[in-house]
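queue> holo job accepted (guanosine-5'-triphosphate)
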Amino acid sequence: MTSAAAPQTDAVILVGGKGTRLRPLTLSAPKPMLPTAGVPFLVHLLARIREAGIKHVVLGTSFKAEVFEEHFADGSDFGLEIEYVTESEPLGTGGGIRNVLPKLRGDNIMVFNGDVLGGTDLGAVLDTHVRNEADVTMHLVRVGDPRAFGCVPTDADGRVTAFLEKTQDPPTDQINAGCYVFRREIIEQIPAGRPVSVEREVFPALLTEGKRVFGHVDAAYWRDMGTPEDFVRGSADLVRGIAPSPALEGARGESLVHPSASIGPGALLIGGTVVGRGAEIGAGARLDGAVVFDGARIEAGAVIERTIIGFGVRVGPRALIRDGVIGDGADVGARCELLRGARVWPGVKLPDGGIRFSTDV
Ligand code: GTP
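queue> job finished
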């Protein structure tokens, strides 16, 4: 659904975070640019913004700021007009929004965390905002376990009554989904020139001041891609068609393989596995929910499960990696076993059989 307000609405995407939870992959690339189902993650979000009828996008950058402009330039290749505002020191989520103010044109501004994979109807969120004459409208999503998120109860009219960051005793299953519509004046009131958290400072203050803060609640697909587990799941969900994205065309299935990649005889690619440009998968390898970046080489008989394999990595024959993150250019020797959250730093070389979780070699 396209809202009538969309063409006059600016989109702001916060992409300045360091992405520490996804290290070591985020040592070389900012989190929103990590390859996700064949394209940089941000391409999925930009496609949704364009589909909603919004044309003008401002990226609030800081960490590795130059990477974004090099890739997206003025946005015309993506059917958008994209501008950039860089924080020399990270200003936090609220400070990042305040910092892009000089670029904003409209009265309503749709703000996105740059690491959320979602399927919500953005036009409907905007309509909720306009209908309620809200100061801020927050997209709220219902989740099974709200404790790790910002929990946001609303009253019968949809008005936000509290903002409870990561509470052990959540009164509702509605959480802050990292997508908001702001009235321009609210952004003007955020303190300039210092770090401000929108979650910890701006939203609680708006409630104290009695501002009109509303929730738009739905149960659409939603995943914060900030951790390796979520990144792997979100990527697999895109490949399998569980997560919607207007940036992906054609049939979805168990795997997505770049046409330039080579797959050896008997290799099994399942669980939403992605194989990037020029990657090589050896004979009889088994990849289940694997994310293999460009130029990586998985040798014969290796098993990779729910793991991100960085650019140019080599995984030796019959190695096993489960729930791991392998940094760019690392070399995992034959028969190594890396389990349960193992992270290999870029360029590290593990000798054949050098790390095992069992004694049979
Ligand atoms: P972690 O270090 O793993 O927590 O990741 P992060 O740095 O990305 O932080 P978080 O996931 O909480 O950030 C949510 C969104 O806000 C992401 O899209 C970040 O890129 C963005 N963000 C976080 N801090 C800043 C900041 O200081 N400035 C800007 N412009 N964006 C930010």
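queue> The chain has two domains: 6-228, 254-350.
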